[in-house]
Amino acid sequence: MRITKRTNIAVRLLMYCAAHQGRLVTKSEIAEVCNISENHLAQVINQLSQLGYLNTQRGRNGGITLGQSADQIRIGAVFRDVEGALPIAECFADADNTCPLTDACRLRLALQDAAEVFYASLDEITLDALVCDNDPLLKILQPVACARQG
Predict the structure, then answer these.
(1) What gap in Å lies between CA 49 and CA 28, rounded to an integer?
(2) What stretches of the chain adopt beta strand conformation (E)?
(3) CB–CB of 37/85 below 8 Å?
(4) S-S: 87 plus which of 19, 53, 93, 124, CB 3.0-4.6 Å?
């Protein structure tokens, strides 16, 4: 199974926002740190905000924050929502299926079962679990340190 570029970007984006909770992050900083083109990122930001995973604020002081708590965002749901109804093989496509074996193919059923197990395993993982206490990841994402007055 291969994950689309859009889903890969979506998870990186959500992880960045989770690492920077409590402040608005900008598209340009995410693009730089996560090595994503701003054009691709803008499309994914739009989709994730429509799905309720992100809140966006326009304007000079605008930015992006998580639209839900990181411990409520299930990675399996993100994958399903972003991937949509992409068929994992030609035989799953309604319109473009040219395979003559579809009606008798046992591989199709095995692939369907495998996809269900794949998504079910991702349903067990929250965004919080990917980010929280993951010091190597947090070092890469360079979260802003808290400035405390004593």
Answers:
(1) 17
(2) 54-57, 63-66
(3) no
(4) 93
Q: How far apart are CA 93 and CA 80, in angstroms?
A: 16
Instruction: Please state, in angstroms and rounded to a whole number, the distance separating the CA atoms of residues 64 and 66.
Output: 7
pTM: 0.83
* Residue located via tokens 């604020």: 57
Q: Of how many residues is the chain composed?
A: 150
From 12, 126, 18, 131, select the one nearest 65 (Cα to Cα). Answer: 18
Handedness of CA 55, 58, 62, 63 (dihedral sign): positive
Q: How many CB atoms lie within 10 A of CB 84?
A: 10
Amino acid, res. 30: I
Instruction: Give the whole-angstrom CA distance, residue 114 versus residue 74.
Output: 19
Write phi, then psi, for 35 (nearest 5 degrees). Answer: 55, 55
Q: What is the pLDDT of residues 77-88, one digit of tens each?
A: 999 999 876 666
Average pLDDT value over all residues in the chain = 86
Tokens 């405390």 identify what position? 148
Residue type, 44: V
